[in-house]
C-alpha cells in the first residue's frame, strides 16, 4: 500500500467520522503508521501487520474518541505502541498526553515517535500502572487493556477525584459494569463510529462516587 494510498484512505475515514484534522496532522499520522510498520518487523509491537488494517483497527479506532476526550491532562494506560495516546497527541495539541506501558520495546518506539514527530505535548512512562505515582490526571483512558474492574484497581491512584476513567470497549460490557469496584459508578456511555471496522465499539465513562459530606 503506497504512501499516497494510505493518506487517502486515512483522510477518507476521518471525513466519514466528521473529524477536523489538519493536513500537517494527517501527514504525522501517516508518518507514525510508517514507523510502526517498520519497527513492527523487528520488535513485534502489534499482531496487525497489514497497513490498511493498521489504519482502521489502530489509527481510526483511536481517533474515534477524538471529540470526546477533554483533558487537559490525560494518561493512556497499557498504551502498547502508543494507541490511542499518540494519535490523540498528534491531533489534539491542546492536550497534555502521557502514555504508560510496562514493555520497554514499546516505550522505546514511542520515544522515537515523539522525537521524529516533535510531539512536545507527549510524555512517555515505562512502568506498571499499579506502581505509577504520577500526579493524578483528569482522564485515564485505556484501549483493550483489561476488564473495567482490573482497570480501576490498577489505575485508581492515577485518576483525580473529579476525573474520569475512559474505557474503550467492543460490545457494551454489561457484566463488567455490574462488577465494578466500590466507589466507582457509570457516568455515561458513548457508542463509537469506527468506519472500516466490523462490530460494536463503545466508550465507557466511569467516575468516582462523591463522598457524603
Automatic annotation (TrEMBL):
Keywords: Cytoplasm, Methyltransferase, rRNA processing, S-adenosyl-L-methionine, Transferase. S-adenosyl-L-methionine binds at residues 78, 83, 129-130, 143. GO terms for molecular function: methyltransferase activity. It catalyses: guanosine(527) in 16S rRNA + S-adenosyl-L-methionine = N(7)-methylguanosine(527) in 16S rRNA + S-adenosyl-L-homocysteine. This is Ribosomal RNA small subunit methyltransferase G. HAMAP family: 16SrRNA_methyltr_G (MF_00074). It comes from the Bacteria. It comes from Neptunomonas phycophila. The keyword Amino-acid biosynthesis does not apply. It is found in: Cytoplasm. Its EC number is 2.1.1.170. Specifically methylates the N7 position of guanine in position 527 of 16S rRNA. InterPro entries: rRNA_ssu_MeTfrase_G (IPR003682), SAM-dependent_MTases_sf (IPR029063). Its main location: cytoplasm. Belongs to the methyltransferase superfamily. RNA methyltransferase RsmG family. GO terms for biological process: methylation.
Amino acid at each position: 500500500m503506497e504512501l499516497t494510498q494510505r493518506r487517502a484512505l486515512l483522510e477518507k475515514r476521518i471525513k466519514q467520522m466528521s473529524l477536523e484534522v489538519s493536513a500537517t496532522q494527517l501527514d504525522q499520522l501517516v508518518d507514525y503508521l510508517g514507523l510502526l510498520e517498520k519497527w513492527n518487523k523487528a520488535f513485534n509491537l502489534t499482531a496487525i501487520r497489514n497497513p490498511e488494517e493498521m489504519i482502521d483497527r489502530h489509527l481510526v479506532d483511536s481517533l474515534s474518541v477524538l471529540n470526546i476526550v477533554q483533558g487537559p491532562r490525560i494518561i493512556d494506560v497499557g498504551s502498547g505502541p502508543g494507541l490511542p495516546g499518540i494519535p490523540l497527541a498528534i491531533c489534539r495539541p491542546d492536550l497534555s498526553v502521557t502514555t504508560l506501558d510496562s514493555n520497554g520495546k514499546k516505550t522505546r518506539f514511542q520515544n522515537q515517535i515523539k522525537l521524529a514527530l516533535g510531539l512536545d505535548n507527549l510524555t512517555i512512562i515505562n512502568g506498571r500502572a499499579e506502581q505509577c505515582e504520577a500526579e493524578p490526571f483528569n482522564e485515564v483512558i485505556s484501549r483493550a487493556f483489561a476488564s473495567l474492574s482490573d482497570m480501576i484497581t490498577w489505575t485508581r491512584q492515577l485518576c483525580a477525584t473529579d476525573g474520569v476513567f475512559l474505557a474503550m470497549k467492543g460490545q457494551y460490557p454489561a457484566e463488567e459494569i455490574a462488577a465494578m469496584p466500590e466507589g466507582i459508578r457509570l457516568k455515561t456511555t458513548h457508542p463509537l463510529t469506527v468506519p472500516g471496522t466490523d462490530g460494536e465499539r463503545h466508550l465507557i465513562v466511569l467516575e468516582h462516587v462523591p463522598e457524603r459530606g
